[in-house]
Amino acid sequence: MTFKWFYSIIIVECLCSNHCKRKVDEPVQTISTSLSFTKNPADYWQVGYSLTNTLDPLQFQLCTFADTSNPIALWHPAVGSNAYYPYTGQNRNSVSQLDVSSQWALKAGQIAMEGSNSGQYSMLRFVSPVSGKLRLKVVFEGVHFGLSTTDVHILLNSVHVFDDNIDGYGGDPSFHSITGSHPSTTYEADLQLQKNDILTFAVGYGTNKNHFNDTTGLMIILEFV
Question: Could you give phi then psi for residue 82, rounded to 5 degrees?
Fold first, then answer.
C-alpha cells in the first residue's frame, strides 16, 4: 500500500525591509483503500469481525483466511464453512463485478461486508499513521439483489460517529434497479485524529436480526489535509 502526496505551495509575504518571501509545503496525504489479501493486518488496515454481537473494540478479532479464487476476494474468520461469516471482501477489478454466486455485485474497488446470523459484525479498521485532520467520505449501500437489510456504523476508537440502517439495493444499476426505503447512506466529515487512533467501519445483521441477502457495499475516501 502506498501514499500519494500532492503539494500546494503557499507564498508568505515577510513584513521585513527586504520584502523576503518563503515557501511552505502543505502535503495532502491520500490513503489507498486497496486491501491486502495476503496478510492481515497490512499497512494501516485490519480486516476482522466481532467475537459476539457487540461493537466493543475489545471484541475485535482478525480474519485469518483469504479466498482469492474469484475476482471478488473475501476474508473469512477462518478456513471452513462454519467460519464463513462475517466476511469482508473487495472487487479488485477496474469494472463492476458480479459475485460468483450471481446474487450480488460490487463496483470497481468497492468493499463488501456481511455479518453473521448470530449478530457478529463484519469490521474493517483503519489505524491512523499520523496525527492530523482527516477528511473522510463513506458510502454504504445495499448490493444484494435480494435487498440488503443491515445496520452500518463508523466508530472513532470506541465512540460512535455515525450509525444508520440500509434497506434495499443501492449498487450498480446495470445489475439491479435501485430500490428500497433506504438503499444507501453517506457520511462526510473532517475528523481530528491522533497517531494510532482507530476508525472502525462495521456492518451488522440489521433490524430483522438475520443476515440473509445482507451483502453491503462500502466505499471510503480518506485524506489527511
Answer: -75, -10
Q: How far is CA 131 from CA 29, 37, 134, 135, 192, in A?
A: 12, 27, 9, 13, 8
Amino acid identity at 20? C
**Whether the model pTM is above 0.90:** no
| Confidence band, pLDDT 50/70/90 cuts, at residue 9 | very low
**C-alpha cell at position 91:** 472487487
Q: What is the DSSP letter of 174?
A: T
- Residue 27's pLDDT is 55
Give the integer Cα–Cα distance in Å for 107 and 105.
7
Question: Of 138, 137, 134, which is closest to residue 195 (Cα–Cα)?
Answer: 134
H/E element, 22:
strand 21-31
Q: Which residue has the cell 455515525?
A: 162
Tell me the average pLDDT of the chain: 90
Q: What is the DSSP letter of 104?
A: B
Radius of gyration of the chain (CA): 20
Three-point CA angle 117, 122, 127, nearest 5°:
165
Three cell numbers at 46? 485490519
Q: CA angle 165-167-170, nearest 5°?
A: 105
Q: What is the pLDDT of residues 78-100, one digit of tens each?
A: 999 999 999 999 999 999 999 99
DSSP annotation of 101: T
Instruction: Kindly state the cell numbers that stand for 134.
Output: 482527516
